Amino acid sequence: MKLLAAAVAAALLAACAQPSPQPLASPGTAPAPQAAQARESDIDALMQRMTLQEKIGQLRLRSVDAGPDARKEVLLDEIRTGQVGAIFNTVTRPDIRVLQDAAMQSRLKIPLFFAYDVIHGHRTVFPIGLGLASSWDMDAIARSGRVSAIEANADGLNLTFSPMVDISRDPRWGRNSEGYGEDTYLTSRIGATLVKAYQGDDPSAPGTIMASVKHFAMYGAIEGARDYNTVDMSPQRMYQDYLPPYKAAIDAGAAGVMVALNAVNGVPATADKWLLQDLLRKQWGFKGITISDHGAILELLRHGVAADGRDAARLAIQAGTDLSMNDKVYGTDLEPLVKSGEVAIADIDRAVRDVLRVKYDLGLFRDAYRHVGRAADDPADNDAENRLHRADARDVARRSLVLLKNSASTLPLRKQGTIAVIGPLARSQRDVMGNWSAAGKARQAVSVYQGLAEATAGRATLRYAKGANVIDDARIVTYLNEFEKDVEVDSRTPRAMIDEAVQAARASDVVVAVVGESQGMAHEASSRTDIVIPDSQRALLRALKATGKPLVIVLMNGRPLALEWEDANADAMLETWYAGTEGGHAIADVLFGDYNPSGKLPMTFPRVVGQVPLYYNHLNTGRPFDPARPNKYTSRYFDHENGPLYPFGYGLSYTTFDLSGVTLSTAQLARGGKLTASVTVRNSGQRDGETVVQLYVQDPVASISRPVKELKGFSKIFLKAGESRVVSFEIGDAQMGFYDGQGRFNVEPGRFNVYLGLDSRDANVASFVLR
Ligand code: BGC
């Protein structure tokens, strides 16, 4: 141990003294040829020295679970004997160092790498995925990614299981909260932005971590939005709508791909050779690692494609699943499978090479402690306040808030008089962080109440009442509280809580009701059959409405909700998702007008759950419904108003923006050419503000039916009150073409419609013809 420490210290000194070696590009991008050659020959040399067991050890990604010391001893022993390749769920430098020390005691001293779910921030928690997406602000999103990488790397971490780019058109799915919504183009842009922000140009550099895009593929299209369910999809929809975001992340250089838990068209992704080899590697040229999702290899048994563990291990490795996340079967079954000739050693070698390449590019072979640093430099307190990036979190959070309604300029509020702050989420520090925020500390998060209190200190009086439990249904509370305390149930009766809230409201000038879903309601394994605000809180809202005081609803939730009642009864409504560590400050900034809201919805909000899936880029059908001329035999529901409550791309501001008609640089375009579509945007209101100009394109006559419109560009702009600006977009093949059922990208001549607007519903249109 002493010797090892001396060797490490010497290596560290050497690393400081020498100029750093030529950086290698991330595995997804092509490294300089010489560097790549050196890497491959170093890996060749190492692999020649590895036994079969040591190779298999590299394919095991193990979780460190908190638990009895004996369990940790078992893990350390596995590491020392070369049976583990990488670790996840460790999140402090001292813990990581102990594990790396064990790897340095193994025969070949192959370093471990350390992964974690750094999903929307790390120590500092940023808004959840849907919130980030609502900003439509790539600089802000990149900032969240950079801060995440800096903080995660400062904890010794090397790789994150992010970004999650699963397109979803169904709000019932709890994991909508982690993704970026329903749109392919927006999600692709965000995925690529985050990959670059996490990885930088050199994944071995301080302050960077590798990205692994997930869940490959099409997890967001599970039937009925019931988590882990199956996916059945036409090839054209797959190529056109669901696959591009993964491809965009890979093109941006993502080092890893996490394989989805679901099956697609009957084949579980973990065993899908077409997906993991033909598409991912051969067509897309991916060179990084594939990682199974948690326990997914053994789940091949219950999917009904493997007879036993051995069969499952064989299918997964042959399909191209490199790393097994917390399944035993690679460890127990791959060796006999190779010995019996059922699995070729080439399959093992290919996967091992992928893993070693990642470690090489992380710089771990040069210095296994490269990212974890020296013990002497460990933070005295992992949660120290000065490790947080609060200013970044606050700024990104306020950009993520979406103003859904604001009648009679109820907002912004004035910092005076008495404000009732009511609701079960108003004082919650845990909920405001959202789920997948395990390195964040709730006690460091700013609740809405705290944000409002600080903003009004000395100027207005706040009156607080909880008013209701998040949910009263005991069965649901038990479900939500099974693994982590999610919902606090008050011992008072609902009546008593509402009475207290009504009293507070009556004694105030305005009511701010903070309602929605607890963070655990919008998580993995949190699918809902209904998407309304739970009854307990709806009853509270009704009682507050009855006081006649102006009612401002502040929503906290991780999926689109059905908000018809709230829309009809609130004077103003702000969608805040789960806004992160600085959520309360950011929300106060918007409620008091210190920041003018600019967020736009990345998912359609239906009126009622029975309408889902409801998404803006649908096909027209042969009998489209026209709200202006409703007709019986059209594609509609007869028992409810049709169309969304809030369309994709929608969001208000405290100012107003006017749009001119669309100008095209030409009405006739030659094949292979480009044209420019422009619109003049004017801030016609009284305040400075930002908005998002959105470009949609429609190919109304093609060889297959094409959507009524598809997002193909956007630009977030800031305009001073009274200011105008021309906003232009280039339109070429990338905006006009589409993938067919064979995965071919076609651009077909004919007429195209170009829409420019501030949401997907109200947009101005012009047409051109492609010759
Ligand atoms: C989730 C992944 C996550 C993994 C590791 C799984 O249950 O599906 O998204 O990265 O756990 O925590």
Automatic annotation (TrEMBL):
For this record, an example GO cellular component is: periplasmic space
Q: Per the database record, which ranges form the Fibronectin type III-like domain?
A: 691-760
Q: Name one GO molecular function term.
A: beta-glucosidase activity
Which controlled-vocabulary keywords does the entry list?
A: Carbohydrate metabolism, Glycosidase, Hydrolase, Periplasm, Signal
Looking at the keywords, is Hydrolase present? Answer: yes
The reaction(s) this protein catalyses: Hydrolysis of terminal, non-reducing beta-D-glucosyl residues with release of beta-D-glucose
SMART domains under this entry? Fn3_like
Task: Give the span(s) annotated as Disordered.
Answer: 20-39
Question: Residues of the signal sequence?
Answer: 1-17
Q: What class of enzyme is it?
A: hydrolase
Q: Which InterPro entries match?
A: Cellulose_deg_GH3, Fn3-like, GH, Glyco_hydro_3_AS, Glyco_hydro_3_C, Glyco_hydro_3_C_sf, Glyco_hydro_3_N, Glyco_hydro_3_N_sf
Q: What is its EC number?
A: 3.2.1.21
Chain coiled-coil ranges: none
Matching entries from Pfam families are given as: Fn3-like, Glyco_hydro_3, Glyco_hydro_3_C
| Location in or out of the cell | Periplasm
Report biased composition (Low complexity) as residue ranges. Answer: 20-38
Q: Which GO terms describe its biological process?
A: carbohydrate metabolic process
Q: Does the keyword Signal apply?
A: yes
The residue ranges crossing the membrane are none
Q: Which family is annotated?
A: Belongs to the glycosyl hydrolase 3 family.
Protein name per Swiss-Prot or TrEMBL: Periplasmic beta-glucosidase
Q: Species name for this entry?
A: Bordetella ansorpii
